[in-house]
Amino acid sequence: MKHLFLSLFIVCLANCSVNPVTGKQDFVMISESQEIQMGRKYNAQILKQNPIYQDQSLQGYVQSIGESLAANSHRPNLVYRFTVLDSPDINAFALPGGYIYINRGLMAYLSSEEELAAVLGHEIGHVTARHSVRQYSQSQLMGVLSTAIEINSGRTAGNLANLASGALLSGYGRDMELEADDLGAQYIYQEGYSAQGMYEVLSVLKDQEIYSKKIAKQRGQEPKSYHGVFASHPSNDQRLQEVLNNVSVSYKQGVKNNNDIFLAKIEGMVFGDSEQSGVRRGDEFFHGSLDLFMSSPPTWEIINTPNTLVFSSPFGEAILQMTIEDLNYKESPEEYMKRFASDTYDDQILTINGFEAFTTKAIKSGRMTRMAVIFKQDQVFQFIGYLKNEETNLSQFDTNFLKIINSFRTLKEEEKKLAKPLRLSSYTVKKEDTYKSLALKSSIANDAEDQLRLINGDYPDKPLSIGRVIKIVQ
User: In the chain, N or C terminus with fewer CB closer than 10 Å?
Assistant: First the structure.
């Protein structure tokens, strides 16, 4: 065992390299050329799974800002690629080697070019400090260590070490995130933006986290967060304030204010659901390419994910999921269902708005569920409805499950325009306007007032001022 740890120590020394940011030795197990190859490989996978947002002017705008920031960075020798992804998720991320992505979903909630620059600067910081490479190297070392421990001490110890390895890959820790904030603030400050832009972005993301917790509670789910390193609001975080104050004192700043350009660039940008994923409008769902309409009970929420359409009752007490598969056999809906479900009862052969269908009740994973399939051309639409609590009787929600399933039909001619996505638009506030009155006119599916406040940085209760230009959704 002593020889093993001596060997590992030698490996660590052999794989130390100078960090481009700190000038100190870092433990990394891959070279810069390998880092770039890794980024190139995963970039291809990202673009295969996530479509690029089809707006060349916006893509060029983001690329130009990113390139200017990267020129100030600690690794200006890299070719940086900045891509806007067609995703409603509020997120941005970086791969090794200079591949950086921002979702249109996040861009909708930014209010200035300075905030956009802060997001890109933060992600450049992750690249220049080689955060992903350092974490990858640590995980590789933990993998070697876990194998060694398993050989010498038995399976349990090895499994514990594997758990540690997994934790290293679960995301950047507070120190790395703060370092990326520090570096990003340096880069944007040197480019002429205020270091306060980093604080404004983190405030936007913190408000999103607060809102996410509220919605997750309503859905009975765990909240998500993009930059969840601040327990309190960024204005109360001493370490962050020290980082931003240090940048303001240490670096020379120019003057740049292109906020009007930013609002012009995102004018008409898709908000929320894309046309390809189908569009939610209140308690109705419209999908143009599938020629599909569905609706939910008024108090339920429709949740649109890449692979599943979810209908959720208040607080997530009952969930109905719809997925789509290719139909590969010439069989009836009942025959299809019986290949996947056993011990069914209350079987019903149906015709739903002209489509062959079948529904039943079945025990799945120890729970009573409502199941159904609907055949539409060469595709089968599969439904499974289940309850959050095993003690709840299915009959309490089964009527709503069946109501949703029976709403399945093709689009009416006048509904096809409703399958087009919602878009951002600039609006000058008038005397009589409030967020509540604007929300009543908005096409946002859920929590319109909160969403309008969030996209304009006024969450939870900041008032509007006459003459101010804000973003609305049409």
Answer: N
**244-288: per-residue pLDDT in tens?**
888 877 776 656 766 679 999 999 999 999 999 999 998 999 999
Question: Structure tokens of 19?
Answer: 């960090």
> In the chain, pLDDT over 90 holds for what percent of residues?
61
How far apart CA 343 and CA 326 sit, in angstroms, is 25
Match 């570096």 to its residue by tokens: 183
For 107-131, what is each residue's pLDDT tens digit?
Answer: 999 999 999 999 999 999 999 988 8
Instruction: Inform me whether the pLDDT recorded for 318 exceeds 90.
Output: yes
**Paired tokens of 198:** 């980093």
Asked if residues 104 and 52 have their Cβ atoms less than 8 Å apart, the reply is no
Q: What is the pLDDT of residue 2?
A: 53
- Return the CATH architecture of domain 279-416: 3-Layer(aba) Sandwich (3.40)
pTM: 0.84
> Which residues pair with residue 355 across a beta bridge?
352
Q: How far apart are CA 365 and CA 376, in angstroms?
A: 28
**Which residue stretches of 191-237 are H helix?**
196-219
Backbone angles phi, psi at 461, to 5 degrees: -145, 20
Q: Which two tokens stand for residue 233?
A: 């609001």
Exposure string of 316-350, with b = 16+ CB inside 10 Å and e = fewer, is bebbbbbeeeebeeeeebbebbeeebeebeeeeeb
Domain boundaries, the chain: 2-265, 279-416, 421-473
Find the angle CA(425)-CA(194)-CA(19) to the nearest 5 degrees. 115
**Residue 8: exposure state from Cβ atoms within 10 A (0-12, 13-18, ≥19):** middle
DSSP annotation of 463 reads P
In CATH terms, the fold of domain 421-473 is Membrane-bound Lytic Murein Transglycosylase D; Chain A (3.10.350)
